Amino acid sequence: MAWKLALVLVVLVVGGVVGANVGWAYVLGPVLGWMVYRFIVGNLRGLAHGARMGAPGDDEVLDPTAVDPDERTLFWCEECGTEVLLLVRGTSRPPSHCGQRMHERTELLRPS
């Protein structure tokens, strides 16, 4: 543990000396490059392992067979009037369109 603290202290002192004498761009450039590299690698690793990029609390997944065959669920956008017919329900959250949540409308089908 002590050697890690000593190493950090040496790196800070050398970075301060180089930054003061040569220029801070030579000290901060590699640090910024390392941060960008870590960000890109982390995002690619998340995509490779199938990480979900949803909002917290979106973990509830409904049974796809839970959609009643005697009714159909439509979502419509209040802004432009676009309608979407729901065939399989994946989550309880309505889809978005025009930057807003769509409104749900359920229609009962007539028996034939």
Structure explained in plain terms:
By secondary structure, the protein is of the alpha+beta class. The protein has two domains: 2-48; 64-108, Rubrerythrin, domain 2, CATH 2.20.28. 39% of the residues lie in helices and 18% in strands. Helix 1 packs across helix 2.
**What count of structural domains?**
2
Q: State the helical fraction.
A: 25-40%
Radius of gyration: 27 Å
Task: Give the low-pLDDT segments.
Answer: none
Q: If you average the pLDDT, what whole number results?
A: 81
Quaternary assembly:
single chain
Give the total of beta strands: 5
Number of helices, where a helix is a run of at least 4 consecutive DSSP H or I residues: 2
Widest β-sheet, arrangement of strands: 2-1-5
Structure classification = alpha+beta
Cα shape: elongated
Beta-strand level of the residues, as a percent range?
A: 15-25%
Distance between the termini: 77 Å
- Main sheet specs: 3 strands, antiparallel
Series of secondary-structure elements, N-terminal to C-terminal: HHEEEEE
